């Protein structure tokens, strides 16, 4: 039997749509707006983040779902976030 280790969640949190799902992680994408002072306009940018997917949430979260992730210690080269909860299902 594996020993469960508690990972402390602290720092930033983001909400976004799941665009890829792997056995132990998901990739979320969300849009942010940036103000460009020179042109006095706003620009839309997309950000992708990888997050660890706990085993208890694996069955509940699918592609297109809107979820919340929270920052934690680095878990691998690209994973620095953990899935906290599912907010909405994919709208058809």
Fold and architecture overview:
The chain has 92 residues and is an all-beta fold. The protein has a single domain, classed as OB fold (Dihydrolipoamide Acetyltransferase, E2P). 0% of the residues lie in helices and 51% in strands. The chain has no helices and 5 strands. The chain has strands at residues 13-21, 25-36, 41-52, 66-71, 81-88. A 5-stranded mixed beta barrel has the order 1-2-3-5-4. It is globular.
Percentage of residues assigned to helices: under 10%
CATH class: Mainly Beta
How many strand segments?
A: 5
* General form: globular
Sequence of secondary-structure elements: EEEEE
Uncertain regions: pLDDT < 50 for 5+ in a row?
A: none
- In percent terms, what proportion of residues is strand? over 45%
The main sheet comes to: 5 strands, mixed, barrel
Second-tier CATH architecture: Beta Barrel
The secondary structure category is mainly beta
Tell me the number of structural domains: 1
The total count of helices amounts to 0
Radius of gyration: 15 Å
Distance between the termini: 40 Å
Return the average pLDDT rounded to an integer: 91
- Major beta sheet, strand line-up: 1-2-3-5-4
CATH topology: OB fold (Dihydrolipoamide Acetyltransferase, E2P)
SSE topology:
Layout: E1 13-21, E2 25-36, E3 41-52, E4 66-71, E5 81-88
Parallel strand pairs: 3-5
Antiparallel strand pairs: 1-2, 1-4, 2-3, 4-5
Describe this protein with a few key phrases.
OB fold (Dihydrolipoamide Acetyltransferase, E2P); 51% strand; mainly beta; 5 strands; 92 residues
